[in-house]
Amino acid sequence: MLALRTATRYAWRRPRNIGQVRLFTNAQGYDAIVLNASSDSGRLSLAESQLISQSTRSTILEQLSVSNFKKAGDVRVLYNVGGVKQVAIVNLGDRKQLNQGDNLEGKRLDAARTAAAIGVKALLNQDVQSIGIDISTSAHGAAEGATLATHSFDRLKNPKSRKPVVDIGPFLETIENVDPFLTWETGQIYGASQNLARSLMETPANLMTPKIFAEEIAYLLAGLEKVEVIVRDEEWASRQGMNSLIGVAKGSEEPLRFLEIQYKGGKEGDAPLGLVGKGVTFDSGGISIKPSNNMALMKGDMGGAATVAGALYGICKLGLPLNVTAVTPLCENMPSGRATKPGDVIKAMNGKSIEVIDTDAEGRLILADALYYLSSQHKPHSIIDLATLTGAMDVALGNAFAGVFTNSDNFWKQLDAAGQFMSDPFWRMPLNDAYLEEMTSSSVADLNNLGLGRSGGACSAAIFLKQFVSGIENAIPNVSGNPELDDAVEQAENEEKIAWAHIDIAGVMDSKHSNGYHVKGMSGRPTRSLVELARSIASK
């Protein structure tokens, strides 16, 4: 299965021993090695280690001194140095800058991450089978960068066209540990988690239907401890009153799935962290069909579900001591005789009626039911939903930041810290009821699903979603017509507010260029930041 292969491909296997070498102590027998160099007042140096002889060190530095090796990110490949077939040396830049300013741990992590990725990419096409990675700056960062750099979604190509699978492993010693928890093994897990999300997003929609997605994740997580995967169908969704999800799904021949994952790494009875991922495995726009240009990219419209699945894989593999409940509503958005039409009215699980003005604003519809189900049934202490939701977010922030809308300053600080630490940053956006005004103007329903359209579109989508999170104050009361349900909702909203964050990842959905540890194609962002956030919550 795809997901399992993705997870195992990057695991480090000890390379074969190719014999004794003279000038590098290369006990693992690597074909090639990535080394980091840094400068101090213009003078280049390598990490101090008994694994590199003085003569080898001198040879490398002499070669670098005549090769215009000056800027951070510069890379040079030397051949047959110290008995090793190929050695890639990557410039970390000025050593003082790495040890000054804010977020020092994050800076060292990213320097190691970037250098490992640049070095590995320089060696991938050099007919090597195993690469040793310099971990002297950060073992975790080096493993992350190398793992991310070796990712390639080429399984559908002719075998002769596929990139070779290369073993990676640690070389040298970690001089300065960023954190005792962060090791070579944890770096591999963080990197493999993002690669899993990348592969799920990159898979063509005919090979990644809602049914296949659910089966892949169930198969991947089945062998891990403390995790339960529950896959539900349309009949179950109908009994729950998830008409908003069903309304999007019914235009497609592919049946919907509602995937629920429960990880119980914390104390029994402790409230979980809640994760919700938008899982539209292909988005044509429905009756409000999209332009044909770049519609092929809409295979990645399940990026929210993919990043949630990748993060759960990492959390489970790390064995973090917290409880997590994740849900991903999975469906296609297609035009047909059964599809929801503009002007139709549907009633969501929480009893609110929605006039569907634009069927291409479908992500918020399936998230509405998922958010209400998770918040009302599982009572998490915090919820994060992730979605490739609006083109407006791409216009606002491009691909540098993912946009965050949240009702909690403290939760924002935690997200911001995790994003900075992983060099996968977030930017806080306004969550304000002013953006709700146009959505409450429907003459036939409580809400419409479009608001102001392109103007403030990401903000309108966020405030729409807020109406479906039980346990936080909303502008429109939940009135379902069911007295028992209304009483339960009122009780929930009188309790302590849930910390909720909506992350719009439309802008960071794909990478246009291959740069450092970024690979051209679907990005899998911000999977590593979600794993780091969970680690931060678990440590408190």
Automatic annotation (TrEMBL):
Q: Write one Pfam family the protein is assigned to.
A: Peptidase_M17
Q: Which UniProt keywords apply?
A: Aminopeptidase, Hydrolase, Protease
Q: Which domain of life is it from?
A: Eukaryota
Query: Is-annotated flag, keyword Nucleotide-binding?
Result: no
Q: Name one GO cellular component term.
A: cytoplasm
What GO biological process term is on the record, naming one? proteolysis
Q: Which family does it belong to?
A: Belongs to the peptidase M17 family.
Protein name per the record: Cytosol aminopeptidase domain-containing protein
To which species is this protein native? Umbelopsis ramanniana AG
